[in-house]
Structures are given as structure tokens and as C-alpha cells.
Amino acid sequence: MEPDPRFTLANERTFLTWLSTALALSAGGVAMAALPDGLFIPWVRTALAVVLVTLSALAAGMAYPRWRNIQRALRDRTPLPPPALAAVFGYGVAAVAVIALVVIVMGA
Q1: Model pLDDT, residue 3
Q2: By CB atoms within 10 Å of each CB, which of 35, 76, 83, 88 scores lowest?
Q3: In a 10 Å sphere around its CB, with 0-12 CB exposed, 13-18 middle and 19+ buried, how is residue 37 labelled?
Q4: Between the CA atoms of 87, 88, 89 and 90, what dihedral angle is there, to the nearest 10 degrees?
Q5: pLDDT over 90 for what percent of the chain?
């Protein structure tokens, strides 16, 4: 059975948002890696860049499977799957922000 088109379109918008988030995380990681040497301790800068780009890859890699699983649940009228990686993204981005904040404050 076809789900209500509004739900299908909402699912598609969520899929595109995951991709947008992946692009933003990737851009943040590249920007972090490109900072001049004097702004951050080199290994901290590299670690933060790696975390951001890794989160980007996870977001992009999990976007389609999540879209597909939700679409299947909508068609079958079964419960929607939980967002399995939501905590990873939330805590990952928060950790990068806190570490960057500490380094910025300590360097000021």
C-alpha cells in the first residue's frame, strides 16, 4: 500500500537533511584541517578534523539506508525505526565543540 505522499515527501526531506548535515560536517572538518598552525595544537586540530569528517561519512553513509527503512515502514504500516546514530552525532558534534572551545579559551 502506498503511504500518504506527505509522509513520503517528509521522509525525502529528512534524507536530504542528512546529506546537508554530512556536507556541513565535511566542510567543518576540512576547515579545521586547513587552519594555520598557530591557532590550534596540531594534533588537536587533526583529531577534531578527523572526528568531523568521520561523522560526515557516517551521516552520508547512513542517509539512504535510513530513508529506505522508514519508507518500508510507512508502506507496511509498521513502527518507524529509531534513529540509531542520533546519539553518536549529537555527542560527537558536542565533543568537537567543547574541545574547540577549551582550546580557544586557553589560547586567548
Answers
A1: 81
A2: 76
A3: exposed
A4: 40
A5: 72
CA distance 15 to 9: 10
Rounded Cα distance between 84 and 61, Å, is 13
Instruction: State how far the Cα of 19 lies from the Cα of 107, in Å rounded to an integer.
Output: 34
Residue 76 sits at the vertex; the CA angle it makes with 73 and 82, to the nearest 5 degrees, is 20
DSSP class of residue 80 equals: P
Number of alpha helices (DSSP H) and beta strands (DSSP E) in the chain? 3, 0
Q: What is the DSSP letter of 77?
A: T
Tell me what pLDDT residue 19 has.
95
pLDDT bracket for residue 38 (50, 70, 90): confident
pLDDT in tens, 72-98: 999 999 999 998 888 998 999 999 999
Residue 10: DSSP 8-state: H
Cell (9 digits) for 101: 572551545
